[in-house]
Specification:
22 helices, 3 domains, 8-stranded mixed beta sheet, alpha+beta, Beta Polymerase, domain 2
Length: 513
């Protein structure tokens, strides 16, 4: 028997339902009334949260009492005369602790609405594992075992009412407070992945973490449990979701404030040349080009990068935000720091940062293509700045070579430029528009050069390929080919309109014996 000690919220969600949702819930209500009256189907979690704040969601998860999700989904299928449900087996390693079943409910216009069904559950955890024993539960018990109060709200399909069993969910949603339903120490010790979820939701919702919850997240003894109970892949998934958010920098700052960022970096650098050789994240850079500490500068670069790549696809935003977050970690490496009379210099910090980024990303099991691109952008994040030095009198050839080199490495010169602009904007709290305008003017100049030839953002087709070079010289492949190919590319950097005939003549002049 379910407890009636519940906060019934007087929010007319029923009036906010789409016609599709109204039809689906009518079907589920009929099934429950006719075939499983004690099942009390409720929509749970994100759909309720989003609906209450005026966002649409197609992620409908239905919780039922006392019967399995598969059993209820089969009742729905028989009621509608449709194909049986798709059963999703429990997969604890992917945070899927209970079997669920999915049904596609057909609409009159031929479309379908996907609904997932699961039984209400409580979870009993053990000391060395975040994989719990699962037991059937009441709605209240199911609400209390969830990660955050804002995710513990239900919409009761039978009553058309929002239910807040914790008594905190609605209030926390209104005030954007991130809080665990139960004691945060217990909640996080049971499943430390909830710490990272709390940080992600704080960034996603623009919310403030409840003080008691924040203290628990910062508890060193609790953080030690992370490496015992959570796979690195699960942490990576949460961090990837965080780094794609518009306000990811807010979440990254919480990672730092709780000591989690330092923990991750220290664990990743064990056994490397960097172990025990890193300065604090808040290190004063002691350099006239930077007013901000190393950490504050990286956070500002991340903020500006997120703004510049707000409309990019998910993977590009992930790569560039990770690059921004790690681009200057090499400055913390003591062997990079060189003390001058009145300043500290960091020659080679770009390559050191790239190595550190690689260690961290591999430690967290990021995909290889993400690792490769982040490491490349971090190692090259200083490439753009020298191009603005007036003393260099940068030629069109130099700029075309810059674009070509980026393309040869499958990197986007535009994305690297975006990172450089973000870096420039973050050197001082008083960076002027005039300072930034130099970067924008150079960017326009390169765009103009690129537009004059048949070139994509990254690749320029060579005027002569390897086979044509060999034919022109009458030679077989050999070590000489590398120099010849680079020579042709250099010709093209100098004159992108060079013809094949002109290029062949130059090659013969340079390489014919």
């Amino acid at each position: 028997m379910e407890s009636t000690d519940i906060m019934q919220v007087d929010v007319d969600i029923a009036a906010r339902l789409t016609s599709d949702e109204r039809y689906v819930f009518d079907v589920l209500r009929e099934v429950a009334q006719e075939h499983a009256p004690s099942s009390s189907p409720r929509v749970a979690g994100g759909w309720v949260r989003d609906k209450l704040v005026g966002k649409e969601s197609d992620d409908i998860d239905v919780m039922v009492i006392g019967i399995s999700g598969e059993f209820f989904a089969n009742l729905v299928a028989r009621h509608l005369g449709i194909k049986g449900p798709h059963v999703i087996k429990a997969n604890p390693d992917a945070s899927k602790h209970m079997e669920t079943a999915g049904a596609s409910i057909p609409l009159s216009d031929g479309r379908k609405v996907d609904v997932d069904f699961a039984m209400a559950r409580s979870e009993v955890y053990h000391e060395e594992s975040r994989i719990p024993d699962i037991r059937p539960a009441t709605a209240r018990e199911d609400a209390e075992r969830r990660d955050l109060t804002i995710n513990s709200l239900f919409f009761n399909i039978m009553t058309n009412r929002v239910e807040d069993f914790t008594g905190l969910g609605i209030r926390d949603l209104i005030t954007n407070t991130i809080r665990t339903p139960l004691d945060p120490v217990v909640t996080f010790r049971d499943d430390p992945l909830r710490i990272f979820r709390a940080i992600r939701f704080a960034a996603k919702m623009g919310g403030e973490i409840d003080s008691e919850t924040l203290v628990a997240m910062s508890d060193p003894s609790l953080r030690e449990v992370i490496w015992k109970k959570i796979s690195k892949e699960r942490i990576q998934v949460e961090l990837s979701k965080l780094m794609k958010l518009p306000d990811a920098a807010y979440g990254v700052q919480i990672l730092k404030d709780t000591g989690l960022f330092q923990d991750i970096m220290s664990e990743a650098l064990k056994g490397t040349e960097f172990e025990g050789q890193m300065s604090p994240l808040d290190m004063d850079q002691n350099n006239p080009n930077h007013e901000l500490s190393a950490w504050d500068h990286m956070i500002e670069v991340l903020n500006h990068t997120l703004a510049q790549f707000s409309d990019s696809d998910d993977e590009t935003r992930l790569v560039m935000s990770l690059s921004a977050m790690m681009h200057d970690l090499g400055k913390l490496y003591s062997r990079i720091q060189e003390q001058k009379s009145d300043r500290t210099t960091y020659k080679g910090h770009d390559e050191a940062s790239a190595k550190i980024a690689g260690f961290i990303l591999r430690f967290l099991k990021f995909e290889n293509r993400v690792i490769d691109h982040v490491v490349a952008y971090v190692s090259r994040h200083m490439y753009v700045h020298p191009l603005l030095h007036e003393s260099l009198r940068v030629t069109d050839k130099t700029l075309r070579r810059f674009v070509r080199k980026m393309g040869e490495e499958s990197l986007s010169w535009l994305d690297l430029f975006g990172l450089a602009i973000a870096d420039a904007k973050s050197r001082t709290v008083n960076m002027t528009d005039a300072d930034v305008s130099k970067y924008l003017e150079l960017k326009k100049r390169i765009e103009s050069l690129v537009s004059q030839v048949d070139v994509s953002e990254t690749k320029l087709a060579p005027v002569l390929n390897g086979h044509e070079i060999m034919q022109a010289l009458g030679l077989k492949p050999g070590p000489w080919m590398k120099d010849a190919v680079e020579f042709v590319a250099d010709l093209q950097d100098e004159n992108p309109s060079i013809s094949k005939e002109e290029a062949i003549a130059k090659v013969r002049e340079r390489f014919a014996s």
